[in-house]
Amino acid sequence: MERNLIENLMEAARKGFPSERFEELIGSENGHVFRIMEVCGTHTMSIARYGIRDILPSNVKLVSGPGCPVCVTCNGYIDAAVEIAHQKDVITATFGDMVKVPGSACSLAVARAEGCDIRVVYSPLDCLEIALENPGKRVVFLSVGFETTIPPIALMIINSRKAGISNISVLTGNKTLPAVLEMIVSEKDRLIDGFLYPGHISAITGTALYERIADKYGMPGVIAGFEPMDILQAIYLLLSNIIVGRNVAVNCYERVVKSEGNKKARNVMNQVFEQCDAHWRGIGKVTGSGLKLRQEFSDMDAWRVFNMKEIETLELSGCICGDIIMGRSMPGECDLFGKACTPENPAGPCMVSSEGSCAAYYRYRI
User: Is the pTM here over 0.85, yes or no?
Assistant: First the structure.
């Protein structure tokens, strides 16, 4: 069924955007290799799933970016989560992708096998029910995500306060995109010609960030949806702007993304969280790229409740996930890829997440 769906979608994409259109567009630019970064992990998976690269000319390279929250979660965060999970009367609630992310010594999956109560939830709001059903235990939610998932986490915190639920804590590891995107475009020898911007996050943030990057750094970009035609149209428009030197940010996902974004979601997020520095796995410390709980919610801060400190730890020798999410390397260039590192036995975070670039390349044999 999935194979037929993909084939039908790709046939429709080819009719709308045959390879010849791209060849005509860059025919006079054959000496240049165009490197486009798809910031979002969902784009990475869609591009791989639908075989988008097969339509593009050989000198158009799509590289993955840092838009997979699991992939940029540091060892130190996982280590703290594992240590808390081993505490008496603790229930750890997490999104499923986090369970197999390797820490310095082990993953949450190993901790669960050792007897820790670790539960996969599909919404942060599930923690409210778990907490009510287990009044003698402390529920610790692993708060990892970008602007898309942070508002519902904030809503869970607000609702728990209103309901008088006092046995919920949040271990914050949230990230925001603006600072890391500016880090990428500020690199002295940057390799990226343009950004394919995420649709989900942009629905919350709006377009101002991308317009600033285009104006300040001369970096064009296009916000895209996730269907084959969405992606192909966005890439075509982005290439067109790159070739003529038109450094603008264009919204090709207007059916979902508005220029002002979602103000209500941002207000809820800002009510609970405030900006802080954050460590990105494989990248390091990025100033102003994280979110922590505001002082008035400090009683729910698991870092404080359990007296924990995130310790930055060394990456596994040979793992190049950091270079991959910065657009410097491709998954196949890693010596561990498909050998010591597979989805069943991931060595690095890009192989763990369903939206990780290594996982996409492995699954679709790119």
Answer: yes
Report whether 170 contacts 198 (CB < 8 A). no
Q: Rounded CA gap, 209 and 181, in Å? A: 9
Paired tokens of 173: 């590891």
Handedness of CA 187, 188, 191, 195 (dihedral sign): positive
Whether 249 contacts 257, CB under 8 Å: no
CA 45 to chain centre: 12
List of domains in the chain = 75-176+263-305 (3.40.50.11740)
At 98-124, the pLDDT tens digits run 998 888 888 999 999 999 999 999 999
DSSP states of 102-129 as a string? Answer: --SS--HHHHHHTT-EEEE-SSTTHHHH
Mean pLDDT of 44-60: 90
User: What was the pLDDT predicted at 116?
Assistant: 97
Amino acid (1-letter code) at residue 252 = C
Kindly write down the DSSP assignment for every residue of 276-322, as one continuous string. EEEEETTTEEEEEEEEEE-GGGGGGBHHHHTT------PPPTT--HH
And the tokens for 93? 């609630």
For residue 95, the surrounding DSSP H or E stretch is: none
Place of tokens 């060849």: 23
